[in-house]
Amino acid sequence: MDIFSGFLAGIDDSFHRERTEEVLTWITNKYPNLEREIKWKQPMFTDHGTFIIGFSVSKKHLAVAPESVTITHVESDIVKAGYDYTKELIRIPWKEPVDYSLLEKMIEFNLMDKATCSTFWRK
Hints:
By secondary structure, the protein is an alpha+beta fold. The protein has helices at residues 5-9, 14-30, 68-73, 75-81, 100-113, and strands at 35-39, 42-47, 50-57, 61-65, 84-85, 90-93.
C-alpha cells in the first residue's frame, strides 16, 4: 500500500483528492529517489533524512511548504504563477492549474542547497 493512500482517503472532496494525488504522483515519478513520508499528518518528501517539500490541504487550496529559504529563492516565480504565499507556504487554489515548473524549481533548489545538510530542517 502506498504511504500516501491513507492521507488521500481522508480528503473528502474528490476533486481535491485527485488533484493532490496528481501532484504527489508527479513528484514520485519525477524524483523516484526521494523518500515519501507522512509526518505531522502531512505528506512530504525527504532526501537523506532532510526535508525537501511537504503539502497540506484546506477547503480553498493545496498548500506547498518548501521552507522559507526556498520561497525566497523562487519568490518571483510564485508571483508569476499568481499564487498567494506567506513566508512558510504557497497556496495553490483548487481551481487554478498547478505550476509544475515551479514545484520542480523548489525541489531542485532544495536538493542542491541541502545536499550536505545533516538535519531535517535547515538551521
